[in-house]
Amino acid sequence: MCNRYAQWGSVSEMRAFMRLLERELVTTPATDNLIPQENIYPDQDAPIIRNHESGSCELAMLRWGFPPIPNQRQPITNIRNLESRWWRDVNREWLMSPEYRCLVPFTAFAEPVRDSTWFAVPDTPIAFFAGIWRPWSGERLAEQPGKSRRSREERDWELYAFLTTEANDVVRPVHEKAMPVILHDPDECLEWLGGGEDSLHLQRPLPNDALQVLDDD
For residue 80, which phi and psi values (nearest 5 degrees)? Predict the structure, then answer.
């Protein structure tokens, strides 16, 4: 399970990558000038790239974590078992529809959350987790003007989560159960954004030689 990652990519780097997909990248006031994020944790806002009604793609800030499964409290940050009824039936629209597919840009991810080892795709300014997003109305932690601590607030949200899969040989010694589904090939990114059943084959470990452990310094 990946519950900590960093995102240092710039808007210009994301635009350059999207040109490889032959897509224009539309920004919002919140994403015109991205601030590097050293540590992104669940229930925080971070950038995602999603399909836009114009046929281009949109860079937007969303909250990390789908609504929890009934009778549980923690948001769903990682999506693994795509054969479960929860994803095949209850949440099928969010999983399958191109409208709700997204790419989650990252620079490095950590396993585990504490005493972490960091992993990155070498020689790649921008890589992505295979994500999905959805609108939701409910209570989440929200920033309060003039206060350092967040408090729970009822509002309309846009939420995202991303797929995980079995760990490859690079990640397994640190976290044997899983790793994020990582996309950095333009064709695979386009396939993921296109939605549909066939694109779920992209839920697989990144090849060992496409991932590296970052030095502590």
Answer: -115, -55
Nearest to 6 by CA among 96, 126, 89, 140: 126
Q: Can you read off the two tokens belonging to residue 205?
A: 């470990």
Cα→Cα distances 68→74, 110, 149, 201, Å = 6, 22, 22, 25
The residue whose two tokens read 């709700």 is: 100
Rounded Cα distance, 108 and 128, in Å: 10
24 φ/ψ angles, rounded to the nearest 5 degrees: -80, 145
Please provide residue 102's backbone torsions phi and psi, each rounded to the nearest 5 degrees.
-155, 165
Residue 192: what pLDDT? 98
Question: What phi and psi, each to the nearest 5 degrees, are found at residue 193?
Answer: -65, -25
pLDDT at 2: 86
For residue 117, the tally of other CB atoms under 10 A from its CB is 16
**Mean pLDDT taken over the chain:** 93
112 cis-preceded (ω within 30 degrees of 0): yes
Nearest one of 2, 24, 67, 21 to 188, comparing CA atoms: 21
